[in-house]
Design a protein that fits this description.
Length: 80
């Protein structure tokens, strides 16, 4: 997984940092989305910038929790 590519896809789908974006809108397959966000969620240095939540829409299993959306803090740029 390339973190920079993930952030670019998020910005393309959401238009700006801090916006809630459906995980399915990032353009990865369901399996790939789950794999990527499992890795992100387990890494403190990355996960502190990512905020997953469960709302309406397609659900993804991220480390045992159903999640549908993500928002990313602009501060993620400090680790890109």
């Amino acid at each position: 997984m390339n973190l920079k590519e993930l952030v670019e896809r998020y910005l393309t789908a959401g238009g700006a940092f801090g916006k809630s974006v459906a995980l399915g809108a990032l353009g990865y397959s369901k399996e790939e989305t789950q794999r990527i966000f499992n890795v992100v969620d387990e890494d403190y240095h990355i996960s502190r910038f990512f905020h997953l939540r469960h709302d309406s829409g397609e659900s993804f299993d991220i480390n045992g929790f159903a999640q549908t959306h993500v928002s990313i803090d602009a501060e993620v740029q400090s680790i890109l």
